[in-house]
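Practice problem: predict the structure.
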Amino acid sequence: MSFIISSARSSRSLTRLLTTSVCSPVKDDNRTSKKYSGNKTCSLLGRDLLTLKHLRGEEIQQLLWTASDLKTRIQVNGEVLQLLAGKSLSMIFQKRSTRTRLSSETGMTLLGGNAVFLGPEDVHIGINESMKDTARVLSRMSDVILARVFDQEDLEILADEAKIPVISGLSDLYHPLQILADLITLQEHFGYLRGLKIAWVGDGNNVLHSLMIGCSKLGIDLSFATPKGYEPKATVLEDTIRFAAKSGAQILMTNNPVEAVYRADAVITDTWISMGQEREKKERLKAFQGYQVSHKMMKEAGADWVFLHCLPRKQEEVTDDVFYDPERSLVWQEAENRKWTVMAVLLHLLTDYVPTTPRPCFMRGALEY
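Answer:
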């Protein structure tokens, strides 16, 4: 496995090549489970989903398979699947959202369950009630918690104190549900995942962190470009190196967006200014000059490149002709898949669901991976 870190040169030369032949084993914790092989399913019953680093590659594939299965059975075949009838989802939202809220509420309803939205004015976390106490109360009134918070530590406290599964709807460190949607979108379009090269152009934020973990777990090549000073966190990079050493993924880190998109099959970007960073807007817009995704930049990408954006989008991040390109842009399919992937997560944390449709191909040139 080659883990590649390149400097921000205008050429495509690679300035550092680290080759790892042996890697440390992935540490097991109370959120991991045993491997499975072939078309067998693995159980995620009772687990938490706080970050993809707690899942094995096979378990990520399991969630993607179930998302595809549910989409086919409900949307294509017209089946009514009341698989979570009588179950309730408590949703804590410290940050506003369109896709996370709508996908979770509609997804839970489609499966026969009930979702309760708890915004900043509905709960008193950090003001009159601790996260610890909130977790204990919700555990007695619902079956699963989804929390969209600022601090990853709050999710950890929720998971430690709750007696029911906890799902990350986003934190400042990770956004695992978004990457599950991105991955199933690419699998639907290309017919496989391992064998693709994905490029990220933008901020070293929570979405990139989860993309790094997801790609390195599944053996997907990833190149990412961020301005100097906006690179991903060192701890996430360390995890990525360790997981990539095991899966065989090649990871390229650069400050040159053109280098990152070179021969990429999919190019992804996100907001340059996340919630809570509004005061940095002027400074960030200056730092991200040259990072707008455009058809000019995409001339360096692979012949059949596609574009993803988790939304909401600002024009400085990507030009209209790329964002609204009917052939290249998969952003609306990506947004819809937020629903099917969160449904898969809910279903697996609350039941031992077994998909009934064929397992998707995750490796190019193979019937199964």
